[in-house]
Amino acid sequence: MLDVTRVEKKYNIDPIGMELMKRRLTRVMTSDPHNGPTGYIVRSLYFDSIRNKDYFAKADGEDVRKKIRLRIYSAQDKNAKLEVKEKTDGMQRKRSLSITREESEKLMAGDYGFLAEKDDSFAQALYYLMTKEIYRPKCIVEYDRYAFIHPDNNIRVTFDQNLRMSEDPADMFRPVNKMIPVAESSDITLEVKYDGFLYSSIKSAIGDDLSINVSSSKYCRVREHMGF
Q: Are 142 and 44 in contact (CB under 8 A)?
């Protein structure tokens, strides 16, 4: 299990601002090795309780909230990340567990028993939570990400755009792109993530002309697009 706690800030940015910022960040950070010419795809299947507890916690702006998702980066991936992302008083904690494609398909079908059988306290806690509160797949969220990284303080700066979705969990491992657009390509989310502190050189590259820090949830945006 991977367990990371860090600061995470989000901003809205336009395409011109993104390209200018990319040029500045190239001088002080490294392009993520997974980036292609336009970045890479992130695809996540989100789970929520029968009463949509996690959606409403975010929509209502609660200080303590969480999201449970299954994440891949290609339909051909043999493994997926099962993640719980929690926010408490402005700090983000992300715990993740690598599971096989076969295990992922069990999750997609609502079969969580294999989690209880793992010799891992996080997996067992997830089994208890997801069965007790009747968690089920809700939607697939997909977007294009371009990322910069820095080895110190686990610093990452990412640009996410072309938000799209599917209501069918079976699309998770389908190679054909059947996703429905949710936002225009000009709708870009900048995310700045780090442990401890952010270097002044990176702060300078990001600039101080951004809009106010926003509380943006791709999961909530997709659920609202679906008409909830």
A: yes
